[in-house]
Design brief:
This protein has helices at about 20-30, 45-60, 100-115, 125-135, and strands at about 5-10, 35-40, 65-70, 85-90, 115-120, 140-145, 150-155. It has about 160 residues and is α/β, with parallel strands linked by helices. Residues about 145-155 have low confidence and may be disordered.
């Protein structure tokens, strides 16, 4: 059976109030969609909430794995993998990407690599919103939370 992968991305200032909806969506991806591998960054509140929810989910579903996305080469910017993660993921070919666009390029790489995207977008003019559009164009199943009413949209 092939692994099903999911990338989680959202605004750095995501409010704590979305946490219950995020937990429910992660649980749905595991139990209904069969996702066994999750990838998350580490640059803001959404990433911290996603990691916290996934570490908790691993207690119930030990078969899932959690990977930390590294947009910068580990030799250039050392990052300790947090407790509960299975390791880090540094996209192939990122060594040649200029530092100023490394996060965006790493996000694109991961969207090309996964089956599902869970995202939180609080405003339309953002890199997260661009990733949602990019994922849709790549036909990656996209689920995202809207900031105003915390409603989940499934595409």
């Amino acid at each position: 059976m092939d692994k099903k992968r999911c990338f989680l991305i959202g605004h750095h200032d995501a409010p704590e109030s979305i946490y219950p909806a995020l937990q429910r969506e992660i649980e749905r991806h595991i139990t209904e969609l069969g996702v066994t591998e999750f990838i998350v960054g580490h640059y803001g509140n959404f990433d911290r909430m996603a990691a916290r929810a996934l570490v908790a989910a691993k207690q119930i579903h030990p078969e899932i794995s959690l990977w930390l996305l590294l947009p910068y080469h580990p030799a250039e910017q050392k990052v300790d993998v947090p407790e509960g993660f299975d390791g880090s993921f540094y996209p192939e070919g990122m060594e040649k990407v200029p530092r100023r666009v490394a996060i965006v390029k790493a996000n694109h790489y991961v969207v090309d690599y996964v089956d599902y995207l869970i995202a939180y977008a609080s405003h339309c003019a953002s890199n997260t919103q661009k990733m949602i559009k990019y994922a849709r164009a790549k036909q990656v199943q996209t689920n995202y939370l809207l900031a105003k009413n915390e409603t989940l949209i499934n595409n």
